[in-house]
Amino acid sequence: MSPRPLPWIKLWLDSLHNQKLIRLSLAERGAWWGLLALAGELEAGGALTAGGQALTLGEMADSLHIKQGDYPHLASMVEKMAAQGSLAWNGNTLHVVNWEEHQKMPNWWLPGSSTERVRRFRE
To answer: Which pLDDT does position 100 carry in this prediction?
Structure first.
């Protein structure tokens, strides 16, 4: 029995130089990366929801193992990234903007695509 592959999200290398992220403190950037990982884990298309229910900032902090003293960093990151258009509130649900677009798998990654590509090459 082969091991199940670990779940993952895509992170772009240009995020190292992204002006939105550079303006965040190191703690806020850590909260951003954690929030992206949480959105991936929740598998709700970038919505921070569990079981169809919106997560509160406190629940997000708990899920990210953020200590109470560091909670303000999460809150300020959410505020800043919402103001810059990377996060958006839809009612009481926080969404990562363009989640599906950024996480979409390229065709070459999809199962069977390499088989088809090799077949076309051989023809």
So the answer is: 82
What is the distance of C-alpha 107 from the center of its chain?
A: 20
CB 77, CB 35: distance < 8 Å:
yes
For 1-11, how does the pLDDT look when each residue is reduced to its tens digit (9 = 90+)? 666 666 767 67
The DSSP letter of residue 47 is B
Where b means 16+ CB within 10 Å and e means fewer, 18-47 reads eeebeebeeebbbbbebbbbbbbebebebb
* 89 touches 42 (CB < 8 A): no
Interatomic CA distance for residues 111 and 9, integer angstroms? 17
User: Is 123 strand, coil or helix?
Assistant: coil
Residue reference for tokens 């363009």:
98
Q: How confident is the model at residue 52 (pLDDT cuts 50, 70, 90)?
A: very high
Specify the pLDDT at position 11: 73
**How much is the pTM?**
0.78
Outline where DSSP puts E strands in 1-123.
Answer: 49-50, 53-54, 87-90, 93-96
